[in-house]
Amino acid sequence: MWLFNNPPKQALQQKYNFNITPAWLEHVQRASVRFNDGGSGSFVSANGLVMTNHHVGTDCIQKLGTKEHDYIKTGFYARTLQEEAKCADVELNVLMNMEDVTAHVNGAVKPGMDAATAEKARRAVINTIEKDSLDRTGLRSDVVTLYNGGEYQLYRYKKYTDVRLVFAPEKDAAFFGGDPDNFEYPRYDMDICFFRAYENGAPAKVEHYLKWNARGAGNEDLVFVSGNPGSTSRLDTVAHLEFLRDRSNPFIMNLIWRREVLLRVYSERDRENLRRAQDELFGIENSRKAYNGMEAGLQDPSLMAKKRAEEEKLRASVNQNPKLREAYGSAWEDVAATLKTLNGIFTDMFLLERGGAFHSRLFDIARTLLRLAEESRKPNSERLREYSEAGLESLKQELFSSAPIYNDLETLELGDSLSMYAEMKGEDNPLVQKVLAGKSPEARAGELVRGTKVGDIADRKRLAAGGLQAIEESNDPMIQLARLVDPESRRLRKIYDDQVDEPRRQAYGKIAKARFAVYGTGIYPDATFTLRLSFGEVKGYEENGKQISWMTTMGGAFEHAAAHGDQEPFHLPNSWMQHKAQLDLSTPLNFVNTCDIIGGNSGSPVINRSGELVGIIFDGNIQSLVLDYIYSDKQARAVAVSSAGILEALRKIYGAERVLSDLGMK
Questions:
Q1: Burial, 124: exposed, middle or buried (Cβ in 10 Å; 0-12, 13-18, 19+)?
Q2: Could you give the C-alpha distances from 193 to 41, 59, 619, 659, 661, in angstroms and in order?
Q3: CA distances from 91 to 36, 86, 161 (A)
Q4: Is the CB of residue 477 less than 8 Å from the CB of residue 451?
Q5: H and E: helices and strands count for the chain
Q6: Per-residue pLDDT tens digits for 451-506
Q7: Who contacts 511 (Cβ-Cβ below 8 Å, separation ≥6)?
């Protein structure tokens, strides 16, 4: 997962005889798109057409739908520019440039500062750097922490906030095989959709976009993936990995199971419930499989033995050099000390500061209004990071989004999370008693949802405009709940910032410098949901003594459906069945490659040597789930939709002439 300003030039030249030029990198970088709520994509036409995965776009597709028009089920196609449907709360980011600000950030933390003072100083300088950059360039400006604190870079993004849906297939085609096939291979999914970015009410004109390769990728081709991998833990200490294995992951997995059961029961009551909940349910199901695979990796003795050996080798090199030992030798113990502190606040931090006890969009809105009012009264340098001036425009776009809120689902989820809060802390806990106000969790949730007005955009804007006085005078029950729990939430946040995050940054910064001193700087950092470039080959693999092909075909999708009796979730939509005779069934549909991906890469373009699009990432196989912690190309594979299969479907199944014209493939 290489940085665009530190690409693996030597490896590509030696292994593939490929000279990766600055012009190639700039073109791919500026054609790549980040969906700010999670996911990747790419410009595929000069008129602002963006392709991503259906499951990345599902949130918008679902919100555009109604009880009468379920676009998740039926699909969507805008036959004219006027029919392109505006999403409520989608923001696209295009990385324009990067600047190393490590010296500036670290220079604010003076020798001898205690952790709390250092955290305040680091937060202040980062907020200031971002604000100064925004004022100077007009671009979204984010200081990105790399190597867990070893480096800091300022990333500047062009933003698109007017984003409209152009085309989406039916879910039965996009997520064919459903949860049973998720993270499996072979796959037969048309997991794509198209949006368009607008500027000033018209389609955006973009210089850099990926030209479509009609043939698609071939076996053993060199390919690249440009996307925004969410997070990895490959540079974490062994103690940190053990904390994830023994404390964090099991806690999250139990929560996932709880929410999945809740949403599944709700969704099975009727079709409208399913339409409302299916995007969140998909995310929960996806997370369940992902965490199961991640935890299995950490429970694998051979993986942990390899991580221990790597750590012991680095520490031995550090300890053999007196200067390195003095500067960095204690860093691993320092990380362990922060984990001990984190363990003591882990549950309360999740329940209160992370909002786990109040799983509700309405509560999130109320707390955002409260903290926006409080933080706006402070100098920018002293604000919580998420309320700094540089990020306020994006925060307010989400806060004032017109996305629908379903009160029955809100009540259900809030009631369940309040029940979980009481279970974990005990009903005798003073704060639990105040939160529940003498009622059962379900009754209290109903009271809060029925009584609040923050679901109304006009009311949100009124409270935001009125500032802290309006918040303090409000009798809205959800605002009052947010005010009730916020002091304890902030107390936990301060402990985390001062005693966990800041000392851990410093410790990992030392470990990063130790790595650079011992191994050089040719090391990529862990994923941070920022743009990265990975490379690999189109290649099958062996599993249980059987060779797994590098690709599947359109015909294979029909065979897969027939093998399962054409029953959900192995049911192809009627549009596919009606046009089967017109299809070239040998056309590649999905393919696998050895590129390094993780969650967040969904929607990333797969690119050939010429910078052309040959596919789009939508999943990894089951063997890829350990990539959070260690990379291997023995069996782990990224799974993509072929550009050839997409063309075949657009032409012969959907008749999507406008999209084909945009792609230069009419």
A1: middle
A2: 10, 12, 15, 10, 16
A3: 6, 12, 5
A4: yes
A5: 26, 20
A6: 999 999 999 999 999 999 999 999 999 999 999 999 999 999 999 999 999 999 99
A7: 148, 150, 235, 237, 314, 328, 331, 332, 335
Q: Which of 645, 617, 613 is nearest to 169 (CA)?
A: 645
What are 265's two structure tokens? 């029961």
Name residue 146's amino acid.
L
H or E element: which one contains 346?
helix 331-348
Residue for token pair 């959900």: 568
Peptide linkage before 250 cis (omega within 30 of 0):
no
CB 590 within 8 A of CB 187: yes
Pseudo-torsion of CA 188, 191, 194, 197, nearest 10°? -150
Helix then strand then coil, % of the chain, to nearest 5: 55, 15, 30
pTM of the model: 0.95
Judge whether 492 and 349 are in contact, CB under 8 Å.
yes
Distances, alpha carbon 96 to alpha carbons 154, 157, 199, 422, 613, in Å: 11, 5, 17, 47, 20
pLDDT in tens, 341-389: 999 999 999 999 999 999 999 999 999 999 999 999 999 999 999 999 9
Beta-carbon contacts of residue 350 (< 8 Å; ≥ 6 apart): 251, 356
AA letter at 174: A
